[in-house]
TrEMBL record:
This is Tubulin polyglutamylase TTLL11 isoform X3. It comes from Mesocricetus auratus (Golden hamster). InterPro entries: TTL/TTLL_fam. Keywords: ATP-binding, Ligase, Nucleotide-binding. The keyword Transmembrane does not apply. It comes from the Eukaryota. Residues 79-91 have a biased composition (Pro residues). Residues 20-29, 504-513 have a biased composition (Low complexity). Residues 20-92, 495-539 are annotated as: Disordered. Residues 44-54, 67-76 have a biased composition (Basic and acidic residues). Its cofactor is Mg(2+). The gene is Ttll11.
Length: 637
């Protein structure tokens, strides 16, 4: 026991109280001496009666009177209060027993009113399982890796909302999110906003949907080239359902033969290629930022303070006919560049082919770049993109979880892929509904033999995102704040070094044996993290061992600056009000009248009779539109 520790001070105070009680009852001490009072009256735990019985069973030279008095201790006789024995027990034993007895008593009293641990069903977590497990250990929450018959507080799904049938609690996926961030759907949603607010949504490259808009694509490219002979564009083709760089290629002209093959195989999006990106070490890179959509109604958005920067592995050159096929030069996808012979696995946050975004900002700041302006532009991009997605997301949500029916609440971590141009303007590349949360990478032990090795950079960023997302979604948060009014966030503990969790075979020949003590946030260099074990004072702040939350709220914090963009969102609210609650997707004449009235569109020039005629005309035009035109978003001309 350390000098000056709380346990030592507590035990000393108890001994002082016992001494005062002994002095006040000196007259009763002589009587108790004759009766043979045991040490348990002084605060030391009493020995079980079974230990005393064998002594009484056999013949002993001890007089019978003290033995009878000892047996009488168990009877509820009215006797003077017990006092400490004349021969005190050994000090070390007394202190130890006092502390243990006090701890047991405190735990018992707290048991009836203690806060239960948050329960998490991780049976569907899939690739994010390792990062989730570390997060749950740090939070000291209860994990159910194989599911649970009783409901859990939080369900962590790896793919979509429909991974499990859930009627309560919280789930980390929104219904319809996977469909909404597909390349075609995302392009349509952003195009609507570009038509309404062209200056506000100029962060997304001009896009065309294939095959529906192929002729439009050819015509517009030809028109621009005729007006500007010096314009030599490059286009990037992205399959709608592709991921991890699968099926992506560059073209210089719409007549490219590969584009013809794409038109016949699967839908895709073709975009203007950004030819002048910001380079670091002569390499092109993009940024993966993690965004938490905490709630749809009201809209709540958080952005992680740090992200990942993924680098190409070949020095960048502007696209030409010779390098157009060099994917390691033009595509930043980690899943592609990891197969390059020049890929460097990161052993620190500021080197290698994958680095933290904060290290990039530090590098830019050293060159005089206004980092606050860069962050402000990125936050604006994220908020505007989510605003473009929320109208249809609300319709999906209403369809899967109708008002008045049991269902879970939802939240989701999104992965925003952003490219900084040479002038530091951020451009949105795509949004991922299921960003990779793996915290290891493949390491080649010998030719053709690979093994998964923990990645310091991935773990540093992704574990913090998952852990702090759970903290924000904690269903017992209000109870904890009431139970611990002085709750605060500090930076006391971190997870154990990766080297502590790696086998010697994995560390052999690997540069990843760098101890976490080399990281600036590690407050316990060379020591194991006490936060990973469920020990400590049960009455202490349950979040005192955690670092500060890495997620920053950006909406509704900056709502006043962006609320004017939520025009389509208001229309979706009206749609849900008149259609979603009734469980139908068809607007009848009565609902159409109510729609016009509540939108305050009716006036002296637009009577209700004219509204009925307008409804009939719209219905006829819609019925004449083919199914293909409806699916492609054809307009009613």
């Amino acid at each position: 026991m350390l000098r000056g520790s709380p346990e030592r001070e507590l035990a000393a105070s108890w001994e002082a109280d016992a001494a005062a009680a002994a002095a006040a009852k000196s007259q009763a001490a002589e009587a108790e001496e004759q009766l043979g009072v045991d040490a348990g009256a002084a605060g030391e735990p009493e020995r079980p009666a079974r230990e005393e019985q064998p002594k009484a069973a056999g013949p002993a030279p001890v007089p019978a009177r003290p033995r009878a008095a000892e047996e009488g201790d168990a009877r509820p006789a009215r006797r003077p209060p017990p006092a400490p024995p004349l021969i005190p027990p050994r000090p070390a034993r007394t202190l130890c027993h006092l502390v243990k007895a006090r701890s047991r008593g405190r735990g018992y009293r707290r048991g009836s009113g203690s806060l239960r641990p948050v329960t998490v069903d991780s049976s569907k977590a899939r690739t994010s399982l390792d990062a989730l497990k570390i997060s749950l250990r740090q939070l000291r929450w209860k994990e159910f890796p194989f599911g649970r018959r009783l409901p859990c507080d939080i369900y962590w799904h790896g793919v979509s909302f429909h991974d499990n049938d859930i009627l309560s609690g919280q789930v980390n996926k929104f219904p319809g999110m996977t469909e909404m961030v597909r390349k075609i759907t995302l392009s349509r949603a952003l195009r609507i906003m570009q038509n309404l607010f062209p200056e506000e949504y100029n962060f997304y490259p001009r896009s065309w949907i294939l095959p529906d808009e192929f002729q439009l694509f050819v015509a517009q490219v030809r028109m621009v080239k005729d007006g500007d002979r010096s314009w030599k564009p490059t286009f990037i083709v992205k399959p709608d359902g592709g991921c991890q760089g699968d099926g992506i290629y560059l073209i210089k002209d719409p007549s490219d033969v590969r584009l013809t093959g794409t038109l016949q195989s699967r839908p895709a999006v073709v975009q203007e290629y950004i030819c002048k990106p910001l380079l670091i070490d002569k390499l092109k890179f993009d940024i993966r930022l993690y965004v938490l959509l905490k709630s749809l109604d009201p809209l709540e958005i958080y952005i992680a303070k740090d992200g990942l920067s993924r680098f190409c592995t070949e020095p960048y050159q502007e696209p030409n006919s010779q390098n157009l096929h060099h994917v390691f030069m033009h595509l930043t996808n980690y899943s592609l560049n990891i197969h390059s012979g020049k890929f460097i696995h990161s052993d620190s946050a500021s080197t290698g082919s994958k680095r933290t975004f904060s290290s990039i900002l530090c590098k830019l700041s050293s060159k005089g770049v206004d980092i606050k302006k860069v962050w402000s532009d990125i936050i604006s991009l994220v908020i505007k993109t989510v605003i473009a997605l929320t109208p249809e997301l609300k319709v999906f949500y209403q369809s899967d979880i109708p008002t008045g029916r049991p269902g879970p609440t939802c939240f989701q971590i999104l992965g925003f892929d952003i490219l900084l141009m040479k002038n530091l303007k951020p451009m949105l590349l795509e949004v991922n509904a299921n960003p990779s949360m793996r915290i290891e990478h493949e390491y080649e032990l010998s030719p053709g033999v690979f093994e998964n090795i923990p990645s310091l950079v991935d773990e540093e960023v992704k574990v913090a995102v998952i852990r702090d997302t759970l903290r924000l979604m904690d269903p017992l948060k209000k109870k904890k704040e009431k139970h611990f009014p002085d709750i605060c966030m500090d930076r006391k503990h971190r997870v154990p070094p990766v080297s502590d969790r790696m086998s010697s075979s994995k560390l052999k020949g690997s540069s990843l044996s760098v101890a976490r003590s080399q990281h600036p946030e590690n407050p316990f260099p060379g020591k194991e993290d006490p936060g990973c074990e469920l020990t400590g004072d049960p009455d202490s702040n349950p979040e005192a061992h955690l670092p500060s939350i890495c997620l920053k709220q950006v909406f509704p914090k900056y709502a006043k600056q962006f609320n004017y963009l939520r025009l389509v969102d208001r229309m979706a609210n009206l749609f849900i009000r008149f259609l979603g609650i009734k469980g139908t997707m068809k607007l009848g004449p009565t609902g159409f009248r109510t729609f016009i009235r509540n939108c305050k569109l009716s006036s002296s020039s637009l009577s209700m009779a004219a509204v009925d005629i307008l409804y009939i005309d719209i219905t006829r035009r819609w019925n004449s539109v083919t199914l293909d035109q409806r699916d492609s978003g054809g307009e009613l001309s």
